[in-house]
Design a protein that fits this description.
This protein is mainly α. It has two domains: 152 residues, no CATH class; 135 residues, no CATH class. It has 18 helices and two strands. A two-stranded parallel ribbon has the order 1-2. α1 packs across α18, α6 packs parallel to α9 and α13 packs across α14. The chain is globular, with a radius of gyration of 23 Å.
């Protein structure tokens, strides 16, 4: 009898998948239309010019973000341009030759140096060697929080005691109290052995930051990052109440709803949210976020799970549709006639 019921449930699940999976793809971009880490309208031309060996468009772009105090844009652009410089070091070398004191160049050099050090087997030694570059990036831009985000990333890989970390954090928030990149860097520091914080303290930090931020601030997604770190912990997750995980996901869903579908600005947050919702087996919510992502896949978090982040995203996207289809009844109850509603 038990075996018969198990077989029956499996057959029903298969039938539901066959009936509904295709229809749930309606409105989703085709696989070949999904883009990975697509640059926005300002960064795209700078990257194209950089591909030709020209650094001045990138220099103008970063200068504009500094002059306009557009710190979130500045942080994103610095990370993307630094990643480009990793593949084309001669591009950055030419900029350094022509304008060695350019504050935007100094920031880009520090970001690239810290990223290179983090990827080195001799990480701690390399990070120590680039300390002066990190310091130099902060000196000419007293109001810019982005060098302090770089400094927090730098400190995360060195044996920095808690007091110096708190000094770095104070410098960052003094310049921009709700800067998303600095909050992410601080959360990652706290989650490492150097930070000495358990998952509970990471959740405390993330939740306090989200409570203090505006409703449409990306800092609202910080608890979702805490969930991802908790669920991805190589040492095995510490006990965290399921209600706390769901509350973080709910906050991320509310943030996503404040932005239009297929908006590239919250794309990374939405990709992260899908990953967390899948881990929590909240399939319907995950499908809604897949729809809101549209064509904008991001490397994070999928590069933490696979060497092919785009392929991983597409695989998860298909898996979410299958799970929703498997839980959808074979037949939906017909709506009663209007006269029957009274």
């Amino acid at each position: 009898m038990v075996r018969t019921m198990v077989l029956l449930r499996a057959l029903i699940r298969t039938a539901r998948m066959a009936r509904h999976t295709s229809s749930l793809a309606a409105g989703l971009p085709a696989d070949d239309e999904v883009l990975l880490d697509a640059p926005d309208a300002r960064l795209g031309p700078a990257l194209v010019a950089a591909g030709r060996g020209e650094y001045r468009p990138a220099a103008r772009l970063l200068a504009a973000t500094r002059e306009d105090a557009a710190w979130e844009d500045r942080d994103r652009y610095v990370m993307r341009l630094a990643a480009f410089a990793g593949a084309r070091p001669e591009w950055l070398a030419r900029w350094r030759t022509d304008a060695p004191r350019d504050p935007d160049l100094l920031l880009l050099v520090a970001e690239r140096a810290v990223a290179d050090a983090w990827s080195s087997p001799a990480r701690a030694e390399r990070l120590h060697e680039v300390t002066d570059l990190v310091t130099a990036a902060a000196r000419p831009a007293p109001g810019d929080p982005v060098p302090w985000r770089v400094a927090l990333d730098h400190a995360r890989g060195t044996p920095v005691p808690r007091v110096p970390f708190e000094e770095l954090w104070a410098e960052a928030v003094r310049r921009s109290p709700h800067h998303y990149g600095c909050h992410v860097a601080a959360l990652r520091f706290l989650a490492t052995a150097g930070g000495g914080a358990g998952h509970g303290q990471c959740f405390d930090f993330a939740e306090r930051a989200a409570q203090d931020a505006l409703p449409d601030s990306l800092v609202q997604a910080l608890p979702v990052r805490a969930v991802f770190g908790h669920l991805s912990s190589p040492a095995g997750p510490e006990p965290v109440p399921r209600a706390r995980l769901d509350a973080a996901a709910d906050r991320g869903v509310a943030l996503s709803a404040r932005y239009a579908p297929a908006d590239p600005w919250p794309a990374e947050v939405r990709n992260l949210l899908v990953c967390v919702l899948v881990r929590l087996e909240r399939w319907t919510d995950a499908l809604e976020q897949v729809r809101r992502i549209g064509p904008y896949a991001t490397s994070f978090p999928w590069d933490r799970l696979s060497d092919d982040p785009l392929g991983q995203f597409l695989e998860v996207r298909d898996g979410v549709r299958i799970e929703v289809a498997a839980s959808t009844p074979l037949r939906t109850r017909p709506r009663r006639a209007a006269a029957d509603d009274h």
